[in-house]
């Protein structure tokens, strides 16, 4: 059986105020085309279908269209809710939708009830573990304590108990939305830490043939049986080096080493590449090596000691798709290690203020006009204080 593993669509999300609905629609076109081209037998969507609990109407319409197209293709789809989704909303109508071959798994009560598909080698049981918020599901699952590891362990106990009662040779697939140890995070994922612990060990999923993970946005192989597909689009500049893809996984007959016979990464369409550039503004504007990034979405980190005038407008002349600007000025000589009181000893208010301005500007001293303005401000304060003293 051939499985197509994807996750973290985040329908309705934008990228630094740039709408991504067209790019998300292009990805779903690509997904459906991939199903046909590679003769996929089942599609796995490991959570975060939407970007927020109450998604905008265009995102809902896009999702609805995708479901119709997958149903028309006659390819079963198993989908779980993630931590960005509203499980209740996503699961509305799940019983009716299931008749069309779209299996929504959003209720923890159904963890031990798989979608059962078959091929020439027998049955394949696909278990959907929606995102499990420990405080909400601990009692329902009978977990030892309210933590991610405990509730996932309890969930997997239900999976193994059901699997043990099935015919010998039944292969198993688990969809889960979690932060599993060994995975590399980005700036895009919402923190799911509970009690200071976010990651769970891969060993929690022992005993199944394939684990289709969602939550982390980078495609990753934690073990040959445990993989993240990653998000199909980049949702922060921390994903600039990601290769966005889906996993095409082939399952053969059950065996001592598992049933996976192949796993291939299939690239997703890229609406526009990302680039992170760094340096002084004039250098960035003149560097011929940055020519490939003139069509990219750009995050520029400026290291000028003094903040340049109109930096965004000047960058946009060369890099018209600059979306984010960061200032990290080059610093002058490091502090000598003297205490704050020692550094201020025998210095006037004017000198202290000038030092402060130079410090926040990366070591650039005030010019004559700026010193005059600063001196005038201090003089006004002194006059005002003297007048208040006389008026007492």
TrEMBL record:
<dbReference type="GO" id="GO:0004527">
    <property type="term" value="F:exonuclease activity"/>
</dbReference>
<dbReference type="InterPro" id="IPR004843">
    <property type="entry name" value="Calcineurin-like_PHP"/>
</dbReference>
<comment type="similarity">
    <text>Belongs to the SbcD family.</text>
</comment>
<comment type="subunit">
    <text>Heterodimer of SbcC and SbcD.</text>
</comment>
<keyword id="KW-0378">Hydrolase</keyword>
<dbReference type="InterPro" id="IPR004593">
    <property type="entry name" value="SbcD"/>
</dbReference>
<keyword id="KW-0269">Exonuclease</keyword>
<feature type="domain" description="Calcineurin-like phosphoesterase">
    <location>
        <begin position="1"/>
        <end position="217"/>
    </location>
</feature>
<dbReference type="InterPro" id="IPR050535">
    <property type="entry name" value="DNA_Repair-Maintenance_Comp"/>
</dbReference>
<comment type="function">
    <text>SbcCD cleaves DNA hairpin structures. These structures can inhibit DNA replication and are intermediates in certain DNA recombination reactions. The complex acts as a 3'-&gt;5' double strand exonuclease that can open hairpins. It also has a 5' single-strand endonuclease activity.</text>
</comment>
<feature type="domain" description="Nuclease SbcCD subunit D C-terminal">
    <location>
        <begin position="271"/>
        <end position="359"/>
    </location>
</feature>
<keyword id="KW-0235">DNA replication</keyword>
<dbReference type="InterPro" id="IPR041796">
    <property type="entry name" value="Mre11_N"/>
</dbReference>
<keyword id="KW-0233">DNA recombination</keyword>
<dbReference type="Pfam" id="PF12320">
    <property type="entry name" value="SbcD_C"/>
</dbReference>
<dbReference type="Pfam" id="PF00149">
    <property type="entry name" value="Metallophos"/>
</dbReference>
<dbReference type="InterPro" id="IPR026843">
    <property type="entry name" value="SbcD_C"/>
</dbReference>
<keyword id="KW-0540">Nuclease</keyword>
<dbReference type="InterPro" id="IPR029052">
    <property type="entry name" value="Metallo-depent_PP-like"/>
</dbReference>
<keyword id="KW-0255">Endonuclease</keyword>
<protein>
    <recommendedName>
        <fullName>Nuclease SbcCD subunit D</fullName>
    </recommendedName>
</protein>
């Amino acid at each position: 059986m051939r499985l197509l593993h994807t996750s973290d669509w985040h329908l309705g999300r934008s990228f630094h105020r740039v709408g991504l609905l067209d790019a998300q629609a292009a990805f779903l076109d690509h997904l459906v085309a991939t199903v046909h081209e590679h003769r996929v037998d089942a599609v796995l969507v490991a959570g975060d279908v939407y970007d927020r609990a109450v998604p905008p109407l265009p995102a809902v319409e896009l999702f609805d269209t995708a479901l119709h197209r997958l149903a028309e293709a006659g390819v079963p789809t198993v989908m779980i809710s993630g931590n960005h989704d509203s499980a209740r909303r996503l699961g509305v109508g799940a019983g009716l939708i299931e008749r069309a071959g779209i299996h929504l798994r959003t209720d923890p009560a159904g963890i031990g009830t798989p979608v059962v598909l078959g091929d020439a080698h027998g049955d394949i049981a696909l278990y959907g573990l929606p995102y499990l918020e420990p405080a909400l599901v601990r009692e329902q699952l009978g977990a030892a304590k309210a933590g991610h590891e405990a509730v996932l362990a309890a969930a997997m106990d239900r999976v193994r108990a059901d699997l043990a009662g099935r015919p010998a040779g039944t292969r198993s697939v688990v969809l889960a939305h979690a932060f599993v140890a060994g995975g590399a995070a980005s700036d895009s994922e919402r923190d799911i830490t509970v009690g200071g612990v976010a990651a769970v060990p891969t060993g929690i999923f022992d005993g199944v043939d394939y684990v289709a993970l969602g939550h982390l946005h980078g495609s990753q192989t934690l073990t040959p049986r445990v993989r993240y597909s990653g998000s199909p689009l980049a949702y922060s500049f921390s994903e600039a080096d990601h290769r966005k893809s889906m996993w095409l996984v082939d399952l053969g007959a059950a065996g001592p080493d598992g049933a996976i016979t192949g796993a291939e990464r299939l690239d997703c369409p890229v609406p526009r590449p990302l680039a992170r550039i760094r340096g002084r503004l004039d250098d960035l504007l003149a560097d011929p090596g940055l020519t490939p990034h003139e069509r990219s979405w750009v995050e520029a980190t400026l290291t000028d000691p003094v903040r340049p005038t109109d930096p965004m407008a000047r960058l946009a002349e060369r890099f018209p798709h600059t979306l984010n600007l960061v200032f990290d000025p080059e610093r002058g000589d490091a502090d000598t290690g003297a205490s704050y009181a020692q550094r201020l000893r025998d210095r006037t208010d004017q000198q202290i203020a000038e030092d402060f301005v130079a410090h926040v500007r990366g070591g650039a001293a005030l010019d004559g006009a700026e010193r005059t303005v600063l001196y005038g401000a201090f003089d006004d304060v002194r006059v005002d204080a003297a007048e208040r003293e006389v008026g007492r």
